[in-house]
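Class prep. Write one:
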Amino acid sequence: MVPTGTNSERTAHGATPAPAPAAATGRIPAQRVAPTAETGPARGSAPAPDPGHAPGHAPAAPAPPPRRAARRGRLRRAGESAYGLLLLGRHVVMALVVLVVLAAGVWTSWGTAQHAMLTKGKERGTLTVAACHDDWCTGPFTAGAAGADHPRVRIDATVTDGRGQRVPVVLKPGTHDAVRTGLPGLLYAWVPLGGALLLASVLLAGALRLHRPAWALGLAGVGVLGAAFVVL
């Protein structure tokens, strides 16, 4: 069989032409883009399963409100407040006890010290110890510049050395009770306060944890008691 024409003629008579290059046609071929988290799954693909809604598993229940934690917090704060009030009440009570002890010491001491310190206008003189019985010594009182003599007055046996001693004294107004004057009588009158200072120092150090004030009161009390013991 003899060919009837050239290649160009055969193309023109029904042969399939070769595809033209993209640059020649002006069209850019479409590119396949891989699906991402932003673009979503590609068309025709199945959606990714949700981890929280996996087949065969019930969805997770929501977390309950923190009522129990809030209740515990309120109870804890209430307990701390009650404990703080108890501590405050204990400190207030112990401070009042210390004040009462000191006030009692001052009151007891002043009952005698006022006569030993404030002798103006009172009967002053000398007591000669004649006899001692238990806590008291008795003897005649010889008045000084002013006053009258008394055949028998009494004085605390602690401030005397026994029978025959002559002691400078002042009489309590309206009584036959004598109080020793001078430094020995004055220190002896403040002995109750010295004991109160010692007791208050123990309370301050033990209950209130106030160590410096406790040391100060304790040393003052020891000083008063020691001085009275030395001069008597």
About this structure: Residues 153 and 179 are 10 Å apart (CA to CA). The longest strand covers residues 136-143. Helices lie at 7-12, 22-25, 67-117, 182-189, 191-206, 211-231. The longest helix spans residues 67-117.
